[in-house]
Amino acid sequence: MPIIVKVDICVGCEACVNECPFGAIEMKDEKAVIGDKCTLCGTCVDTCPSFAIEMTDEPKAVPAADLSAYKGVWVFAEQRNKKIVPVARELIGEGRRLADLLGEELSAVLFGNGMDAEARSLIEAGADRVYQVEDGLLNEFHEDAYADALSQLIKKYKPEIVLAGATSIGRAFVPIVATRVRTGLTADCTALDIDRENKNLLQTRPAFGGNIMATIACPNNRPQMATVRPGVMKSLLPDAARTGGIIKEAPASPLTSRTKLLETIEEAGHKINISEAEIIVSGGRGMGEKGFELLKEIADMLGGVVGATRAAVDSGWMPYPHQIGQTGRTVSPRLYIACGISGAIQHLAGIQSSDMIIAINKDPDAPIFNVADIGIVGDVFEVLPAFARKLKEMKGR
Amino acid sequence: MNIAVCVKQVPDASEVKIDKATGTMVREGVPAVLNPFDAYAVEEAVRLKEKHGGKVSAVTMGPPQAGEVLKHVVAMGADDVMLISDRAFAGADTWATSYTLGLGLKKLGPLDLVICGKQAIDGDTAQVGPGVAENLGLPFVAYVRRIVDVSGGKMRVERLIEDGYEVVEVSLPAVITVVKEINAPRMPSLKGKMKAKSLEIKPLSAQDIGAEAEKIGLAGSPTKVMKVFSPPPKGNREKIDGAPEEQAARLAEKLKALKII
Ligand SMILES: Cc1cc2nc3c(=O)[nH]c(=O)nc-3n(C[C@H](O)[C@H](O)[C@H](O)COP(=O)(O)OP(=O)(O)OC[C@H]3O[C@@H](n4cnc5c(N)ncnc54)[C@H](O)[C@@H]3O)c2cc1C
Ligand SMILES: Nc1ncnc2c1ncn2[C@@H]1O[C@H](COP(=O)(O)O)[C@@H](O)[C@H]1O
After folding, report:
1. What pLDDT is recorded for position A41?
2. Contact between B121 and A209 using a beta-carbon 8 Å cutoff
3. Between chain B's N and C termini, which has fewer beta carbons within 10 Å?
4. CB contact under 8 A, A216 and B121
């Protein structure tokens, strides 16, 4: 094991035991002992107040190739039905910031035929350049074709950083690309930055349902790749005066696909994509079946959508696509109103990156209040109808 | 059908508690369980076997005690198990994990289908499934919520997307990841439990699967964890007291001030 505890220095303070994210350290005879669950994350090395824990065999920094050959920040500009998804513009905003910090260029990668207007809009959104790959197979999402097209481009132009949205498309095919080009990929990031010392990309993401955060780097391989959670980065205001180059690329070898898309079905009643919703009015077991009608009414008035806990979905009060949390969707709205929700750890996992959380619960000790910006202790069946009346009154004015 | 499932042992999320005073996670003494998404993978594999015949093999990479999840999976109906366990694998990121699992899966001989969970609830990356597909050179479909039909070397599935689902046909062999909606995992049967009890698991080492040292464990992982920390507690917490009418009115005013109304 490359992490060792120097028993003569260890004072048995247990600081590492408490900090280990994986619960891998135990005390034996008042000394810390590192067990099998260790993932070599190094948290204990940093935590130990007595410097008794060391990483012996720190992996030698052997760059896989000449890293300086890789330049520029890329954003994968995902489109669905020829429309660029919001997270792509958010990433252009963030990518602009990173590119400026590095003093490099920002490029967008756009797939599909007949996308000239969208390519132009990416320049206006902040990109210096757009690589437009035109191929009929890329109009819709096919894992094989998307992975081939992006890997080919990366091998040809050698970008330093590649960002994509952590959407059902991005999370499905970007891992294939990273595996193929033999580089690291950090999933579902919520913060990005550049390390001042060595210019590496620092990628911060929640793990364990948002209960711990990890900052991850990819020091010896390029490009540095990340998928980023929708809704957390800020897009720039479009600027029609911006100029940039649009480069049309034909795939180096013809694209093929071993999957065939037969049909796309938008499910009735939830056309709205809850992962990208700005306002979510969410209900739990405390709402009861009837209560969800009230939530829908309030959500409509606020221009938002309805979310639900697993308990509510399991009771059949809302369909599964509305479920938020570890086994449902991850959301990052501007406002999350939690009604009759206890705040179980698995539910909180899905709402950590909300800008503001308001909780209404009759139990003052409900854990939801630990994460709420505004807490209302009260009965949802008293507070919410009054709130709905108030909203109507304000709208009527 | 010859089906393999990838299963992982993870800390039991329902046992994880938050320390009220510090707002940090209490990680000590949390029992380990089968990753909940992998239970859906196992269930689906067993159902396919029941319908089409064949066999289900379960593969895990992890420390020796990770073999416990293999017992659970056998109790649910899996036929064969493979535990890939070696100190040299410690510290593997998703790249190195996918490579390692890929080698293990290749040892199983020709497969028709590999099923993974959507994600493991400790890392939440959802990257190992697609990574395994690439290592095996097989087509991949993520977020499968229903297997509609398997016939003629093809499989038709429903893939969950943000605002609905897509019906996709994929040629076999293939790798898929599955979501909760796909099924309700069964309880282990008594017969299954008996079988699990007598199960002998011989771990395979890095050498046994023919792994290259520079592609496994910490050394083979392109990503490095720089820092692990607890999310900062949220400040400015505020309570709205009073009678319900008053609470509702003040909430509406707040939202108006925030320009939400
Ligand atoms: C592996 C695993 C994965 C899971 N994944 C998810 C997931 O993705 N998403 C998820 O949500 N859950 C998930 N869960 C379930 C989770 O642990 C909780 O059981 C669930 O979130 C609880 O939902 P709830 O808050 O609606 O219900 P409860 O915990 O029953 O809470 C109801 C709350 O309503 C309050 N209440 C009742 N009546 C009123 C009233 N009249 N006025 C005001 N307040 C009232 C009560 O005080 C209580 O706090 C998962 C569990 C496991 C084990
Ligand atoms: N160490 C492992 N052993 C076996 N299967 C794994 C392992 N890690 C991940 N998996 C599989 O890959 C899926 C996604 O995991 P992850 O990419 O870690 O979120 C899991 O649901 C498992 O099916």
Report:
1. 83
2. yes
3. C
4. no
Q: Do B13 and A384 touch (CB under 8 A)?
A: no
The residue of B14, B89, B161, B236 whose CB has the most chain A CBs within 10 angstroms, and thus the best one to mutate to test that interface, is B161
pLDDT over 80 (residue B233): no
User: Rounded to an integer, what distance in angstroms lies between the CA atom of residue B261 and that of residue A91?
Assistant: 28
Q: At what angle do helices A170-181 and B94-107 cross, to 10 degrees?
A: 80
My answer on whether A242 and A298 are in the same domain is: no
Residues A290 and A326 in one domain: yes
- A220 within some domain: yes
d(CA A92, CA A179) in angstroms, rounded, equals: 24
ipTM score: 0.89
Spatial distance between the Cα atoms of A186 and A329, rounded to a whole number of angstroms: 19
**Is residue A144 situated within a structural domain?**
yes
What is the domain-level CATH number for residue A185?
3.40.50.620
**Residue B115 alpha carbon, nearest atom of ligand 2:** 23
Q: How far apart are CA A45 and CA A61, in angstroms?
A: 19
Domains located in chain B, CATH noted:
2-215 (3.40.50.620)
Which chain A residues have a beta carbon less than 8 Å from that of B125? Answer: 187-188
- With a pLDDT cut of 90, the percent of chain B lying above it is 79
Show the domain range for A25: 3-55
**What average pLDDT score do residues A72-84 get?**
96
Question: Which pLDDT belongs to residue B30?
Answer: 78
| pTM of the shown model | 0.86
Measured by CA distance, the residue closest to atom 18 of ligand 1 is: A344
Tell me, using a 6 A CB cutoff, whether residue A126 lines ligand 1. Answer: no
In a domain, A35, yes or no: yes
Helix (H) or strand (E) holding A56: none
pLDDT of amino acid A19:
82
pLDDT grade, residue B48 (50/70/90)?
A: very high
Q: How far is A121 from chain B (nearest CA, A)?
A: 23
Same domain, A287 and A210: no
